[in-house]
Amino acid sequence: MLGEKGIEVNLKSELYWERREEFLRLNPAGDVPVLVEKESGAVMADATAIAEYLDESHPEPPLMGATLLEGAEIRRLVAWFDKKFEKEVTSLLTSEKVMKRFLKMGEPSSKNIRCALQNLKSHMAYISYLAERRNYLAGNRISLADLTAAAHISVVDYLGDINWEQWPEAKNWYVRVKSRPSFRPLLADRIGGLTPPLHYSKLDF
Question: Given this model, what pLDDT does residue 122 score?
Fold first, then answer.
């Protein structure tokens, strides 16, 4: 969203599970993201709250909808991916395939991974349904719904868990989003010791 609006940002990694006292003073909930404005020192937490602030303080291009109905649909889909998709897919896969490995929490649960992959099929079918009927997920133009969904999809794709040949409509939508200049820096991120599939960074795959 920052990239779409042309806002410069200094990104910092936070190992939130370490619950640093300095970080907890910024956000007592102890999770990310947290936005700290350089000039004012204002602190904001929660992805949706930050997104609302950015869209109102930097209205061009609008990413939360031009009408009340558009805004409601965008917020519905943002919640779908940040809550439902996160709980049923992203969190399960990253916990089993990434966090357990780096925090030395034992072997991944094949049951949880199978459950996440089964859930993923339903979500990919829903993305395909929306992409087949609209230019973008929430309507005719790109919005926070697309950026949110694509961010989650990017994580799952990094882990190599999406068979794109099964989902051509979803693939076409994702290619358009990942090809945007704002999204490309995300594709350059890497997890140490964990290499993504060869197609991951390709804009057209």
Answer: 98
Model confidence, pTM: 0.92
Q: Count CA within 13 A, CB hemisphere, residue 6.
A: 5
User: Mean pLDDT across the stretch 67-76?
Assistant: 96
Query: Contacts from 97-104 at CB under 8 Å and sequence distance 24+?
Result: 97/159, 98/159, 98/191, 98/194, 101/194, 102/193, 103/17
Which DSSP state fits 80? I
Domain assignment present for residue 39? The answer is yes
Give CA separation, 92 vs 7, 73, 82, 140, 153, in Å: 32, 26, 13, 32, 13
Q: 60: phi > 0 → left, psi -120 to 50 → alpha, else beta; which? A: beta
Q: Could you tell me which residues come within 8 angstroms of residue 23 by beta carbon, excluding any fewer than 6 positions away?
A: 14, 16, 30, 34
Which CATH number covers residue 33? 3.40.30.10
60/58 Cα distance (integer angstroms): 6
Query: Residues near 130 by Cβ (< 8 Å), separated by ≥ 6?
Result: 77, 137
Query: Is 103 in the same domain as 34?
Result: no
Tell me how far CA of residue 195 lies from CA of 59, 89, 98, 109, 152, in angstroms.
Answer: 37, 20, 12, 20, 17
- Same domain, yes or no, for 78 and 176? yes
205's CB contacts (< 8 A; 6+ apart) are 164, 175, 199
* First and final C-alpha spacing in the chain: 24
Residue with tokens 């947290």: 34
